């Protein structure tokens, strides 16, 4: 199939068993809502056009509690409005998927142009502790594949999963192949995680801390500590099962390019050009942005003289990379344009002279 990234997200959601979507149109994610409005009735699903993004996220939470696999899609301003709902989903361990198609902000900014300005917000935008998972594809094929994976991770770890995209990946068209996926169904959780109860079975969902009987207890320090440890450790203890990344020409490389999303597609070309000119350049692409592959990146960068982070913001992933590597330089692009490969090549050459 010849699909855009947004269309591939729709098909991935349907394959994963998503049967409920609530959303509010916002550029550049609107095609996801349009696609779900068309596809869900064909599989006996439900599409709801909501009045705003706050209503959207809480409708998705309600649908998931009722037993449906559920998703919403948005962009920067709408993603900000969803943060309280995402915090509730983390606290109450409600599986759901949010697609955030990033555009050039802040505020309305340049709504038709791409950015990577919500990398940090996808983890730290909500209030409170607890872990969630963030994936970042770089092609329409990966939009389909990782939408399925996002639903699988949401169900397996009872957690909201954020699929980051951007205005270029969302609208670029490439061949996308359908294949057989393993689909994780409701109740198929990782060892040590309690399955989500069925509606009507005594299941209690609340944003307030609960006592051992499942009832709210807003002053419960010891119980609260145990719960925060639980919703944090279920991700941390399973990092090796969750984390995904790509390595290219890592063996023997002297320099390393680190990039993700659409910026990484530019860096494929940059790496190839530099290798053709005789430089030993590797590429590391984090696919799972949170939890971030710190340990894996550290191993790759042990013998590297210098690393370069190419991203479409003022340095959000750069700060995380510096926790793994010492010699790191940022090559940012935050104008709303895709990074210029020739400018990146010149910057790297100048820096290593």
* Total separate domains: 2
Reported by name, the CATH topology of the largest domain is Rossmann fold
The second-level CATH architecture of the largest domain is 3-Layer(aba) Sandwich
Strand order of the largest sheet: 3-2-4-5-7-6-12
Biggest β-sheet strands, sense, barrel: 7 strands, mixed
* N-to-C span: 46 Å
| Poorly predicted tracts of residues | none
Structural class: alpha/beta
The residue fraction in helices comes out at 25-40%
> What is the N-to-C succession of helices and strands?
EHEHEHEHHEHEHEHEHHEEHEEHEHEH
Mean pLDDT: 95
Q: Could you tell me the strand content as a percent range?
A: 15-25%
Q: Radius of gyration from the CA trace? A: 20 Å
| Rough outline | globular
Alpha plus pi helix count: 14
CATH class annotation of the largest domain: Alpha Beta
How many strands in all? 14
CATH superfamily of the largest domain: Thiamin diphosphate (ThDP)-binding fold, Pyr/PP domains
Walk me through the structure.
There is one protein chain. The protein is of the alpha/beta class and 353 residues long. The chain has 2 domains: 2-175, Thiamin diphosphate (ThDP)-binding fold, Pyr/PP domains (Rossmann fold), CATH 3.40.50.970; 246-352, Rossmann fold (3-Layer(aba) Sandwich), CATH 3.40.50. The chain has helices at 5-16, 30-39, 53-65, 76-81, 83-92, 121-124, 140-157, 167-171, 221-236, 239-242, 261-276, 294-300, 316-321, 341-352, and strands at 2-4, 18-23, 46-49, 69-74, 96-102, 133-135, 160-166, 173-175, 245-248, 255-258, 281-286, 288-290, 306-311, 328-332. A 7-stranded mixed β-sheet has the order 3-2-4-5-7-6-12, with helices on both faces. A 5-stranded mixed β-sheet has the order 9-11-10-13-14. Strands 1-8 form a two-stranded antiparallel sheet. α1 crosses α2 and α1 (5-16) packs parallel to α7 (140-157). The longest helix has 18 residues, at 140-157. The protein is globular, with a radius of gyration of 20 Å. The termini are far apart.
């Amino acid at each position: 199939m010849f699909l855009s990234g947004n269309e591939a997200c729709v098909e991935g959601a349907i394959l994963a068993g998503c049967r409920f979507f609530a959303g509010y149109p916002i550029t550049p994610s609107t095609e996801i809502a349009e696609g779900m409005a068309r596809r869900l009735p064909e599989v006996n699903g439900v599409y709801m056009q909501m009045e705003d993004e706050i209503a959207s996220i809480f409708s998705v939470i309600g649908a998931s509690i009722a037993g449906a696999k559920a998703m919403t899609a948005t962009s920067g301003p709408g993603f900000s409005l969803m943060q309280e709902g995402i915090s509730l989903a983390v606290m109450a361990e409600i599986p759901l998927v949010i697609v955030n198609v990033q555009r050039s902000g802040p505020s309305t900014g340049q709504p038709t142009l791409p950015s990577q300005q919500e990398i940090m917000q996808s983890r730290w935008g909500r209030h409170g502790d607890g872990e969630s998972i963030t994936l970042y594809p770089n092609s329409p094929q990966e939009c389909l594949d990782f939408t399925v994976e996002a639903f699988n991770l949401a169900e397996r770890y009872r957690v909201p999963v954020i699929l980051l995209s951007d205005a270029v990946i969302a609208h670029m068209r490439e061949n996308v192949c359908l294949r057989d996926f393993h689909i994780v169904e409701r109740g198929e959780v990782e060892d040590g995680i309690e399955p989500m109860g069925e509606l009507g079975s005594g299941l209690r969902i609340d944003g307030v801390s609960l006592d051992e009987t499942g009832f709210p207890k807003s002053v419960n320090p010891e119980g609260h500590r145990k719960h925060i440890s639980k919703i944090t450790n279920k991700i941390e203890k399973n990092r090796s099962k969750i984390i995904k990344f790509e390595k290219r020409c890592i063996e023997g490389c002297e320099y390393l390019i680190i990039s993700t999303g659409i910026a990484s597609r530019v860096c494929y070309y940059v790496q190839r050009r530099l290798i053709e000119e005789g430089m030993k350049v590797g590429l590391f692409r984090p696919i799972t942005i949170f939890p971030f592959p710190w340990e894996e990146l550290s191993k790759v960068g042990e013998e590297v003289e210098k690393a370069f982070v190419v991203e479409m913001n003022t340095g959000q992933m750069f700060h995380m990379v510096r926790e793994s590597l010492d010699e790191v330089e940022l090559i940012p692009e935050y104008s709303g344009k895709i990074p210029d490969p020739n400018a990146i090549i010149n910057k790297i050459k100048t820096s290593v002279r």
